[in-house]
Amino acid sequence: MPTTTGDPAEHKTTYREAMRDALREALRSDERVFLMGEDVGRYGGCFGVSLGLLEEFGPERIRDAPLSESAFVGAGIGAALAGMRPIVEIMTVNFSLLALDQILNNAATLLHMSGGQLPVPIVIRMTTGAGRQLAAQHSHSLEGWYAHIPGLRALAPATIADARHMLAPALADPDPVLIFEHGSLYNTSGDLPADAGPVDLDHAAIRRPGTDISLITYGGSLPKALAAADDLASGGISAEVVDLRTLRPLDDATIAESVARTHRAVIIDEGWRTGSLAAEISARITEDNFYDLDAPVERVCSAEVPMPYARRLEEAALPQVAGIVTAVRRAVGPAPYTVDEEQKSGAGKAG
């Protein structure tokens, strides 16, 4: 259970508990809401997010599904069409590929193909990302694939507050919403402000202001970007950290405003570099901020290999703090002389 701190305005919790509280709130506030997926009931969810909800809400609203992602995602789409508000859990993002026909050809397209008559208000949650030695098949970061699809909204909660407060606006969205929960975040803990409210899904968040370079990232890479910003600050480089939060539609305005302030950008994306979300953001920065840039846009992505199982190889394949710092130093280049330094060196004196 979450433990309270001395500050009555906040309490300490974990990312996992925040997700569970969000589910509980949704189930209590709307009788149309139900949770469905493999092992979400008796087992409490593959990652323990739904632990205890079956006992609280019963098997009609916490539904264990058979091992067929296409079947239970399709059932969720049908329930949404019938007026329910289903939350469908897929264990890990690789299993979502078994339901890709349902997600792409039904959930994302029915509103358009019906001339606006058939909205599909479904929320599909799935665990994503590597770093936990789950080998190649269970370590994918495929958020960029889904961010490619019109008709979907793709979310990546990176903080405890977002984990707690993204679900309510997602359920209120008339379109299908995919929530990508990075597996490395479930055990993270922190203080959740009591006055935190529903997340504005249309806007990215500036997690750390800065003046020299923009670090643009999302999900499980946010802690690494913040750690890199701390490292860089000790060397006199002020890095602004932008948490995208929503991957489709991207908040172009916040990205552009940040790059206009800092004149440099590094994008950190756990997906593969080729055809990545980082590539899309880099292209948009070039289109929208070309004359603001003082250096080429840098990208820090996963190695172009199936994710290794061995821990050290897995760490080597993933974006890490050291790689982010190296990319920043490459973009920033040598520190410019100050006026005082120029005067001391005699620069600018008449010959």
Largest sheet geometry? 7 strands, mixed
Rg, alpha carbons: 22 Å
The strand count comes to: 15
Strand content: 15-25%
- Helix-residue proportion: 25-40%
- Contiguous helical run count: 14
Structural category is alpha/beta
Low-pLDDT runs: 1-8, 336-351
Shape: globular
| Spatial order of strands in the largest sheet | 4-3-5-6-8-7-13
The overall pLDDT, averaged over residues, is 93
Cα distance spanning the termini = 74 Å
Task: Report what the structure shows.
By secondary structure, the protein is α/β, with parallel strands linked by helices. It is 35% helix and 21% strand. The strands form three sheets. A seven-stranded mixed β-sheet has the order 4-3-5-6-8-7-13, sandwiched between helices. Helix 3 (69-81) runs parallel beside helix 4 and helix 9 packs across helix 13.
List keywords for this structure.
alpha/beta; 351 residues; 14 helices; 15 strands; disordered N terminus
